[in-house]
UniProtKB/TrEMBL annotation:
Coiled coil: none annotated. GO terms for molecular function: DNA binding; DNA-binding transcription factor activity. Residues 1-58 form the HTH lysR-type domain. Pfam families: HTH_1, LysR_substrate. GO terms for cellular component: protein-DNA complex. Belongs to the LysR transcriptional regulatory family. The lineage of its organism: Bacteria, Bacillati, Actinomycetota, Actinomycetes, Kitasatosporales. This is LysR family transcriptional regulator. Keywords: DNA-binding, Transcription, Transcription regulation.
Amino acid sequence: MEMRELRYFVAVAEDLHFGRAAERLGIAQPALSRALAGLEGRLGVTLLERSSRRVRLTDAGAVLLTEARAILAAAEAAERRTREAAEPRPRITLAVKAGTAGELLAKVLDAYGTHPGACPVDLLLCEAHEQRKLLCSGRADLALLHLPFDAVTGLDSEALLTEGQVVILPSGHPLAGRAAVRQSEVTAAPGPPPARWPAPDGSHPEGPGAEVRNLTQIFQLVALGRATVVLPASAAVDLRRDLVAVPVTDAPPVTTVLAWPPESRSRPVADLVRVATAL
């Protein structure tokens, strides 16, 4: 299989439409159809079922889509890391979910900045579940992830901080004046259903709650009485004035970890990890 063929296949498998995929790739539709027919012929399997009305992935096609995405991401990461290795002064790109771990992140960056040989650190702010994709594509060298919400399977990681969770409420909510609450009290309290965060594939689970992708969205919805949410305590450090954070005593703890691809051989990355875990 050629990289070109994998890119063609992924485009069609994602769009499920040859015309749109051809336009996205910048090639003629007949050439795209011939390339994928040739790929199917060499593999001896049907990847896409075509009809006059729709295109559908077969079981074999679904498997190749997963594998092809991983191969293309690995190739992109290898290209980026190779180019970065040739830079006279290396840089580190750290992916962080916007609005999270602010105090911890500041301490890590300050400590690393005093380390002999420290190099510049670029922050790549992203939304829920994007950190892993950024690591796998090579766009980020390191990422802050939050267990159990983010998966670290296939990555190297070091735990930095374990903390409790809080429920974010409008200042006039019946529970807003409490020193602490239990999860059952949050569920039973009058108000809107919990917000729905995206799954790793970017889709939102079914349910009545509002769809959100970042803390700015959820804080505005909570302030308007349109959502409730339980978050790690550090997410409420710079909470807006019309909201309060109340500890949830029986919510599972959240652990912030620093994660990186296992194939990384970057000395600056290793130095930053050592500094962070020593804090």
